[in-house]
Amino acid sequence: MLIYDLYSGRVCSVRNKSFKYFEGSNVLLGKYVLSIRKIIFTVVISTCLQACSVFTQKPEIVFYESVKGDWITDINSEYMLNPQTSGLSYYNGYLYSISDGSADETQIKRLHKISLNEEKVIDKLGPFKMSDNVKESCFSSYLNSRPDYEGLVSIPNRENQWLIVTEDATRAGELSESCQMRFKETGSTNHPTLLVKIELINEQLLITGIRALQFDKTDNVGNFPNDGIEGLTITKDSRILLGLEKDKNTQPRVFELVYEEQMFNKLDDFIKVKDTQLLFPLFDEGNHPINGMDVYYPEDSDKGYLIAAARNDDQLWILDLEKQKPTKIVNVEFFAPSSTNGNCASYHKIKNTALEGVAVKRDELYLINDPWKRVYADNTVCESDRQKYEDFAPLLFKMKIKPEWFN
User: Fold this and answer.
1) pLDDT digits 0-9 by tens, 47-58
2) 128, 195, 234, 334: which sits with the fewest CB atoms below 10 Å from its CB?
3) DSSP states of 81-114 as a string?
4) Residues spanned by CATH 2.120.10 within the chain?
5) Beta partners for 367?
6) In 238-309, which ranges are continuous DSSP H helix?
7) Does the model's pTM come out above 0.70?
8) What is the DSSP string of 156-221?
9) Whole-number Å distance between alpha carbons of 26 and 322
10) Is the dihedral of CA 121, 396, 149, 213 positive or negative?
């Protein structure tokens, strides 16, 4: 059954109590092609508004690629020890990564500055400190402990300034009673998702701004502390894009808000985000979260495309920010270098990659994984590589961005 949502001008498909929107100007109904704007149904509008949440569409083209990665070397010239690299951003000739709350103590609350040529951490900035203007934040205790930082993006045209976003704050404990009352209407998890601004000032990495994100209740985001916002990037027209792993319907989403310099003049206060209504591939079952993401512009005049990593599927999704073209899917086979010890091939295929960082540099795409602890050691092919997998060492991949992904 199809329902026409008069509020948004979209058609909602109702199937097995599952609601999905269709994008475009025409809907095929039986043998007739009807204009969406001319479809008339008697509906209960609130039902569709509450249940329909994601624009979905079958992908038009599927591509296949393979890429060889490199183990990232730490400052001590050894491979990185359990950094749980959950965000990646390109800035001024270097990559920067951030670690989530489950990383080794030596990695958390730091920015890792990575050389592009050597796949090596050449500096560790941090640990983060609270600037004077945020020390009284409701969330200062959490951000001073083991915050679950996920997405990372450098702020365009601002020197040494970044945005980061938090996900799972269950380990933070309870907020004070007054803070709980102030931030109870998150529209998502009990503890709000935080957008955090950090700046490198006089060789200190300072948290200088904190805002709590608020989702509309009708967006049906759900209360999933470990399946929340993971992707973060900024478009050239200053829109902050936030990638949600899954909503109540187990569908990935992308939300947005406008970046403004003065947005951090307020401390903690809610800032509302809205659904981008981007076109996603349609899946009938399973979890298909998106994690790391960045924006690419084939031409300067283009509105841009979002390149998102679907970690469970070893895929890249190419989403048109104008919402005119169906999402393209790039299936990727990942290979890791084998140790030179023993009779191993020079590279071996990775079974469980778990991409969580995506960064664009001109026509080059950099990808980094966040080793999934439960299964990462299963990637071992050569026994001399086992220790890297058991220590959750990440890999950095570099790909050429291909024009056909955007045609």
Assistant:
1) 444 444 455 565
2) 234
3) -S--EEEEEEETTEEEEEE-TTS-TTTTT-EEEE
4) 55-406
5) 358, 397
6) none
7) yes
8) TT-TTEEEEEE---GGG-PPPHHHHHHT---SS-SSPPEEEEEEEETTEEEEEEEEEEE--GGG--
9) 17
10) positive
pLDDT at 57: 62
Residue showing tokens 């790391």: 292
Query: Dihedral, CA atoms, 355, 357, 360, 366, nearest 10 degrees?
Result: -60
- Cα 299 to chain centroid, rounded: 24
Q: Which of 399, 397, 396 is nearest to 73 (CA)?
A: 396
Structure tokens at 68: 């060889």
pLDDT at 54: 52
Over the stretch 288-334, which tens digit does the pLDDT of each residue have? 999 999 999 999 999 999 999 999 999 999 999 999 999 999 999 99
For residues 58 and 287, what is the distance between their CA atoms, to the nearest angstrom? 17
Token pair of 276, please?
A: 């981008």
Per-chain mean pLDDT for the chain: 86
Contacts 24+ apart (CB under 8 A), 346-354: 347/68, 348/379, 348/381, 348/382, 348/385, 349/381, 350/69, 350/379, 350/395, 351/375, 351/378, 351/379, 352/376, 352/378, 352/379, 353/311, 353/314, 353/395, 354/311
CATH assignment, 55-406: 2.120.10
Residue identified by tokens 């590589």 is 385
Of 313, 303, 299, the C-alpha closest to 241 is 303
Side chain identity, residue 95? L
CB 246 within 8 Å of CB 224? yes
